[in-house]
Amino acid sequence: MNSDNKDIPFWEERETCWVSSNKQCTPAWKAERIGRIPASLISEVCGRANYGPAIRTKEPEETAEIICGLREKSFKPDNILAMEDGIVGEPLVRNWYSEEVLHRPITQVGTAIWKEDTYFSASLDGETKTDEGMDAAIEIKIPGKLNKKFIEVYESWGKELNNPHPDTYIFASHYDQMTAGSVITGKHGCYYVVACLKDSTCFHQYIKTDIKLWETELYPKALEFHTTYVLPLLQKHNIQVIMPK
Question: Is residue 245 one of the residues assigned to a domain?
């Protein structure tokens, strides 16, 4: 989709959000995110992120500077390699999941801006429908090795054991990102797809949108973070936040 085409609106209006026609990772897409808390950082700004020892949790001021475009994200060499694997592997996994598992189309989503609070945004790895025809998001993760917890959960399904709550085996940073993205884009739930390309293993599960978590914890804490740390920077540096047109 070419946002320069005058026949195609720059912003698509939906029930819960506006969606930009600019593709992910383009300069225009990056500009649209400035000043907004993206779903990918919702866990961090709420103090719930549990990335593990390989990735340092940032100070609030540093995270706010990144959100405002005043500071570049810094990554360790191992993290950069993992990100590169994700960039290369995500389209492959998306196509495979669409054709071999869901048997229906998956489309990528650029910047989606929440109508209820335009300082919140999400960029989905994909969107599709459930078997029942409900709107669903897609979140793809490509780790170097599949988490043992996923294997244990998969085995419990085979034994017809009670399914533990997803937040007991999914990283909070992933669970919160899916929650925020689904709320902002008005999705019933999200297909969580974790694929390890090196050993051809995959864990996937449909996660229903956790509205309670969003309303009682994620949104209130993220709003407080934005008010305390982000808005002052926007005002101090006279940063204009791009709004849907």
Answer: no
Confidence at residue 57, expressed as pLDDT on a 0 to 100 scale? 57
Tell me the β-bridge partners of 121. Answer: 38, 113
- Over the stretch 24-43, which tens digit does the pLDDT of each residue have? 989 999 999 999 999 999 99
pLDDT tens digits, residue range 46-66? Answer: 999 865 444 445 789 999 999
Residue 161 is part of a domain; what is its CATH number? 3.90.320.10
Is the entire prediction scored with pTM above 0.85? yes
209: Cα separation from own chain's centroid = 13
Asked if residues 112 and 184 have their Cβ atoms less than 8 Å apart, the reply is yes
Q: Which domain holds residue 51?
A: 11-236
185 in a structural domain: yes
Does residue 62 sit in helix, strand or coil?
helix
A 10 A CB-CB count for 4 gives 7
Residue 241 lies in a domain: no
- With the CA atoms of 78, 125, 179 and 35 taken in that order, what torsion angle do they form, in degrees rounded to the nearest 10? 80
**What's the domain count of the chain?**
1
Q: What is the largest CA-CA distance in the chain?
A: 58
